[in-house]
Amino acid sequence: MSQAAVLTPRQLLQHAYGLIEDPPAVFAARWPRAVALLARQALEASLEELWTKRGVKIAWASERAQLLCLPVALGDRRLAADAAVAWSGLSRACHQHPYDLPPTAGELTGWLETVDALRRAVEGSR
């Protein structure tokens, strides 16, 4: 049995930016949700990487609980707050509801920038 390739947060974000810039026809109106899913996966993978680097065993906790711990672990309260807002927006965008509009490219780009800032902060941490 072969293992599936695991994408890094950077790779996930590259795919997300690619979908915003030039969505393939096959994604038609679905590309915003695909971008949101990739971005949320990148955010969650960055959190997982941070906890691993810190030696914190918190994977059992929900993402919401992990985000509550993020300001102290990251040492950047503003970025932690922005990451929590981005995660919430991305989570809403990942779930299709009959009368909800998908997020705009501007909203998605803002969330992607936050996730990328978190990724860079985690990569630079010890």
Description of the structure:
With 126 residues, the protein is mainly alpha-helical. The protein has one domain: Four Helix Bundle (Hemerythrin (Met), subunit A), CATH 1.20.120. It contains 5 helices and no strands. The protein has helices at 9-21, 31-54, 63-74, 77-94, 105-124. Helix 3 packs antiparallel against helix 4 (77-94) and helix 4 crosses helix 5 (105-124). The chain is globular, with a radius of gyration of 15 Å. The protein starts with 8 loop residues before the first helix and ends with a helix. The model has no long low-confidence stretch (mean pLDDT 91).
Question: How is this fold's topology laid out?
Answer:
Blueprint (H helix, E strand, L loop, with lengths): L8 H13 L9 H24 L8 H12 L2 H18 L10 H20 L2
CATH architecture label: Up-down Bundle
In the predicted model, the low-confidence regions spanning at least 5 consecutive residues are: none
Structural class: mainly alpha
Query: How many beta-strand runs?
Result: 0
Helix fraction, binned, reads 55-70%
Taking the alpha carbons of the first and last residues, their distance comes to 34 Å
**Run of helices and strands:** HHHHH
Structural shape: globular
The total domain count is 1
Number of helices: 5
Using the coordinates shown, work out and report the CATH topology.
Four Helix Bundle (Hemerythrin (Met), subunit A)
Range of strand content:
under 5%
Mean pLDDT over all positions: 91
CATH class label: Mainly Alpha
Rg: 15 Å
Largest sheet: none
Keywords:
126 residues, mainly alpha, Four Helix Bundle (Hemerythrin (Met), subunit A)
